[in-house]
Amino acid sequence: MQTELRYWQTEEMSHALDQVGARLRAARHARGWTLEELATPAGVSVSTLSRLESGKRQASLELLLPLTRRLGIRIDDLLPTETRDPRVHRPIERRDGMVIAPLTLEDSPMQALKIVYPPMDAAPAARIHEGYEWLYVLSGRVRLALDGSEHALGAGEAAEFDTRLPHSISATADGPAEVLSIFSASGERFHTRLA
């Protein structure tokens, strides 16, 4: 097992180093520089840089430091980042008759929720919080109470508003409504954690 793990780590490291040349070339091309325009000021020969970019020369700290300084990047920028699982595995929450399903990762800068609102005869009390919200009605009818006015939205309709205005969202008495909501992380905390 230890031998297999060591072999896997060596293979992973080798694969990461294989990508350094291509990433170095991409950084040079992004600046529109020739091999000479990067190599000469960095104190590296053009042939060495060419071999490094094509993978025919092993990358070393001694070679990479002057090149990355000249490019204005970090050595870490030349290494592949770990690809994480893009699937969202967050629990569905049930509160006050609502079913709240997170659609984004917890650390995403923007948050999206699919919310099923239960039927209600009247709008709940309006609240305010930091952020901005965009919502899209997937099914049913939604009552958006916003800054003292009520707006009715049906399936296929959208709305956006500043959440610092007093607002509430609910389904009408006709039946449940399913809504897709997108907002900042502070808005997500309001929707999922406040009673």
Automatic annotation (TrEMBL):
KW DNA-binding (keyword) present: yes
CDD domains assigned to the protein according to its UniProt record, in alphabetical order: cupin_XRE_C, HTH_XRE
Domain of life (superkingdom): Bacteria
GO cellular component: cytosol
SMART domains membership: HTH_XRE
All copies of domain HTH cro/C1-type, residue ranges: 24-78
A single GO molecular function term of this UniProt record: DNA-binding transcription factor activity
PROSITE patterns reported in the protein's UniProt record: HTH_CROC1 (PS50943)
Keywords on record: DNA-binding
Spans through the membrane: none
A Pfam family that the UniProt record links to this protein: HTH_31
The protein's name: HTH-type transcriptional regulator PuuR
Underlying gene: puuR_2
